[in-house]
Automatic annotation (TrEMBL):
InterPro entries: DUF305_CopM-like, Ferritin-like. This is Uncharacterized protein (DUF305 family). It comes from Nonomuraea angiospora. Residues 164-190 are annotated as: Disordered. Coiled coil: none annotated.
Length: 190
């Protein structure tokens, strides 16, 4: 699992989120080969949504941070899925995409909590990334439980200087016997 660096500015957020999204897009394209329509749909949704978001973020970087270094991949957090198929493809994707999404959620929450967004559209974007990916995490947890009997959430990445996400409880997914129900992220970004 790649390590996320603390978000200390709007530029940090955008420049880290671009390669992070590109990593997710590459992995999600592999779901075209899934036998499950739910997984094919999830993959297509991630590719479509995050491709548009990458374009938006690159535009902002060009407009506002032209003098700063361009985003560069800092190492993939997703495994190579090209040799996998069937249940192995679906399960591996879910086990890795949940913590991958959690990294994006935490990056977005960190930007919002610390008031680092310099432009209202970036703050709105971060809220949307946080909320949309949290909804996908819930769905992916349900798939792991339903199809593979996994009741525990794959590891949540540790972020230096950020002990955890308020209201986002790791552990069994909602609805499983004995599992906690995570609270929703605050719509205000706090």
């Amino acid at each position: 699992m790649g390590q996320m660096h603390p978000i200390t500015s709007e530029y940090d957020y955008l420049s880290q989120m671009v390669p992070h999204h590109e990593d997710a897009i590459t992995a999600a394209r592999q779901l075209r080969r899934s036998n499950r329509p739910e997984m094919r749909q999830l993959g297509q949704s991630i590719v479509t949504t995050q491709t548009a978001e990458v374009g938006k973020m690159k535009g902002w970087l060009e407009q506002w941070y032209r003098q700063s270094p361009a985003p560069s991949p800092s190492g993939t957090t997703m495994p190579d899925l090209s040799g996998l198929s069937g249940d192995q493809l679906d399960e591996t994707f879910l086990q890795h995409m949940i913590p991958h999404h959690m990294m994006a959620i935490m990056m977005s929450q960190q930007l919002l909590m610390h008031g680092e967004a310099q432009h209202a559209e970036v703050a709105d974007f971060a809220r949307k990334v946080r909320d949309d990916q949290w909804a996908e995490v819930r769905a992916m947890r349900q798939y792991l439980a339903q199809w593979f009997g996994q009741q525990n959430t794959p590891c949540i990445p540790q972020v230096p200087g950020m002990p955890g996400m308020p209201g986002m409880t790791p552990g069994p997914h909602p609805g499983t016997p004995g599992g906690p129900t995570p609270t929703e992220p605050s719509p205000t970004g706090t």
